[in-house]
Amino acid sequence: MSRTLVLGPSLGTSADACWGACAALLRDDFDVIVAWELPGHGTSRGPVPEGLTAADLAARVLEQVDGPFLYAGDSVGGQIGLQLLLDAPDRVEGAVLCCTGPKLGDADTWRDRAAQVRASGTAGLVSATAARWFAPGFLEREPERASALLHALRDTDDDGYVAVCGVLAAFDATGRLGEIVAPVVAVAGADDPV
């Protein structure tokens, strides 16, 4: 039986910038690795759907993958993993959810971030995001990885970023966590402010 791993990126990153190095290390362990893009992020260009929801993004993932799969997701990618675990329990065999939760921040925080991007674009987020994304010393130890992630943020389509902020503002699976039946590993960093 084919083993498939699906990888979900975080807001403002591309699938390659977020997961490329990990995927390269895991190629021998999986027959298929699918890294999907958020709308307006990475290689996903074109019109961004209005009123985007986590369920919409989960449905897009399910359309890209045949059969059962394992899932790993970071931040909003992790929340989409939760949505997949709830919507398709027969398809998701297990998940690793990184730096995420059933609710991240509050709706006002995400609305404020969306307003900031509307006013000055994703490039205006790069400096503050570097301090939030990377633990002390990471920029010095891994300058190429950090640069790739920050360039992905800068290159993210403003409308795509704003749409995903809307997903984050609306998502709250706190009351449904008990419905999840597949094994889940939750990973958080000591220096992750979320």
Number of helices: 8
CATH hierarchy: architecture: 3-Layer(aba) Sandwich
Average pLDDT over all residues: 94
Rg result: 16 Å
What is the name of the CATH topology?
Rossmann fold
Tell me the overall shape. globular
- Major beta-sheet overview: 5 strands, parallel
Cα-to-Cα separation, first versus last residue? 38 Å
CATH evolutionary superfamily: Alpha/Beta hydrolase fold, catalytic domain
Instruction: Give the structural class.
Output: alpha/beta
Topology, element by element:
Layout: E1 4-8, H1 15-26, E2 32-35, H2 54-64, E3 69-74, H3 76-87, E4 92-98, H4 107-120, H5 126-133, H6 138-141, H7 143-155, H8 158-170, E5 184-187
Parallel strand pairs: 1-2, 1-3, 3-4, 4-5
Helix pairs in contact: 2-3, 4-8
Describe this structure in words.
The protein has 194 residues and is of the alpha/beta class. The chain has one domain: Rossmann fold (3-Layer(aba) Sandwich), CATH 3.40.50.1820. It has eight helices and five strands, in the order E-H-E-H-E-H-E-H-H-H-H-H-E. It has helices at 15-26, 54-64, 76-87, 107-120, 126-133, 138-141, 143-155, 158-170, and strands at residues 4-8, 32-35, 69-74, 92-98, 184-187. Strands 2-1-3-4-5 form a five-stranded parallel β-sheet, sandwiched between helices. Strand 1, helix 1 (15-26) and strand 2 form a beta-alpha-beta unit. Helix 2 crosses helix 3 (76-87). The longest helix has 14 residues, at 107-120. The mean pLDDT is 94.
